[in-house]
């Protein structure tokens, strides 16, 4: 017998059988996060109530006050007056989103910034005797406070402070009453009678109409409320309420639908955004109730007084509990198996392997966990006690592997292996010739069912006879084996610290390195996997390669960046899964799509566990469900949930300092030009426990975003202008969250302001204008005097001209009388009288019409024609373009030139036939008057005049020239005078032409 045992020992085929059973199935529970996992230290305060505000800050109320929490730090809010140092028992929100507090003495206050302000009608609450009595509170849309005093009834306090009792103990009701307020919210209160409590009578459930009518609904199992009754509204319009003890009732306003009792008194009901109902109890933890009939389902925190009381903007649920400062449920889709939930003691989940519809997990702390259809059971593994003297590590397997060909679960120990066929464990040990302290590190199975496995310095296979045989491959064994993979063809791939080797399927003698030309594959190889008809190689630098036939390809993202992965595991469909080697790791899903490798990155954010607790090789996927092994738990999640984007972190500007003085933040701040030193502090709001990075910019100064890690920004000597500070936060590698903004305006100094500069320019222009005004006024006065002087001079000239003409006319008449030519003398006197009337009339005018001037000239020429009978002929012509009765000219301006032409030109002519023509024309809106004679000319006239009377002075021509000069002084368009001498064909003087241009 001893010889047989020795023979079996030497051949390495020692076998024994052990039958074991599996334990009961366990369901996963939602993942709970404790306060210490957020704060990294146990808080020395307690939480009696929790609420979340519109900015996603979370508030905790307790004996020591109210704390505000942003996911990273707790801040104690300030209190004053009657609220100072008062223990806060409850928190609730009004319709405007304002957080209200209630103290143990039933004083109210609301949170403003980082402190709370007392309710202005707290004295009215004293008048209804609420002190020491638990109370329900609710503010409606109109600001009316509804007060439900436990066992005492229902009161209201209006926005003006008027107290009204709605229903009290005098009603005779012994029970629970609920109603719907005008804003549609349900409200509940209780009334108990002393006689009813003494007789231990059960309470009745009532519904109260807004009119005040009371409707009886049902008899309850509760005799009096120990805790506050609570009510929540259901999606179908019904309500679910607790009686203050163990009862949960679902009802409509006119009937009860269902009534259930829990095993513990109910302290809170909470309806989340997914319409799940959470029932918090006094000593049984929290129940998740998913159906409207109030049947309790999953139970959390058994043995504690716990309740879900708030939900944040990301869908996370906050739990108050006697077992901790608080608990947090980040997402219901991420569930876990853990020791904390009273399940299997997970201490480093080491390996997953898939077998059929089951997932097996090797756990260092206890049995092998078996997951099937969302539930977990445990499979005890046998202790390897058959080999003595190898230490305690020989009793625990270091690796498990499921053989899909033979439907066996294999476990590898130091010095041996064992298999599980669903009923029994079967052990195989290595022979003494092999280093028996070497642990089995890798398994593989060929298509014919041959099991391959390896330790650090040797390769083995299990023969069909159940014997372990060593493969003679010194070139491989000497390089220290790290991993093993088997192709469908039967070729065996071996990873070592010095590269990859491949053994042929037949004899295992042909050994080659098919990727020796790639430097990065000639070093340390972490993992080998055979999947999707390819060999996948994970290197020591976390790079990933695929070998497909003769093609070796490094796996990269679409950007060309190499995929870096810490481990790879294959699922039943052949896809690969692993954790990326990033600071904020993700789950990499690697698949083959249309012959090409596709890489998808998935989020599995479990509050930092992915970074701090992840153990290499603990990912498995089966039927679109992922199992993720951690240090003390195993997460389970549907793949579709992982493709949903995790909530992005918020960031809020918390403090705003101007010139080192804190300003109250508002929508827009206007600052003086001296208030140009700005300091801003901001804080993140995120409940994912990831390290965040920030970026900011100051629009009006910065054109690009600046990335930072701290939370304090300073600006000095900002120029006047409008600014908008913007800040964002993100988990590294993810998208940026929402932007928080603060706008402010720094006013321009008045001396640089547009209005001031405009005023200075306006004053300067006004001053210059005033100077010009004074100058122009002075000039105007001078011009007025000059004009008055000129007018006087013109009148004087006209006075000189008129006597001159009169003298000449009277001389002519005198000559006719002397010659006794009475008829002509009378005719001349008549014409003279008519002309004198014209001249006297014109002398009072500055301007006369051309028609009047021509009429006067015609009278004058007739007089001169009669005087010098037969001496000359004359014509007066007016062009058709002129309108004589509209055209205005200075009076008496033309007559002196006609007189001069007759007297000095025509009368000095020896022969008769003198002609005088006066032509009026229009050229460019200018009146052109041409006076032309065929007399002796100016030169001959001057000579004759000198001979006759050297002392005679002609006033007519000189007077009109002076008058023209005077008229031009006050005119923009000047009167011009041109005098031309005319000559005959032979060059003799032929007369004179005077051109008068009157604008």
What does this structure look like?
With 999 residues, this protein is α+β, with helices and mostly antiparallel strands. Among the domains are: 141 residues, Methylamine Dehydrogenase, Chain H (7 Propeller), CATH 2.130.10; 100 residues, Sandwich (Immunoglobulin-like); 211 residues, Heat Shock Protein 90 (2-Layer Sandwich). Helices cover 18% and strands 39% of the residues. The protein is built from 13 helices and 74 strands. The strands form 18 sheets. A 5-stranded antiparallel β-sheet has the order 1-39-38-37-36, with no helix packed on it. A 5-stranded antiparallel β-sheet has the order 2-31-58-57-56. A 5-stranded mixed β-sheet has the order 61-67-66-63-64, with no helix packed on it. Strand 12 and strand 13 form a beta hairpin. The longest helix is centred in the last third of the chain and has 65 residues. It is elongated, with a radius of gyration of 59 Å. The N and C termini lie far apart (155 Å). 36% of the residues are buried. GO terms for molecular function: phosphorelay sensor kinase activity. This is Signal transduction histidine kinase internal region domain-containing protein. It comes from Salibacter halophilus. Keywords: Membrane, Transmembrane, Transmembrane helix.
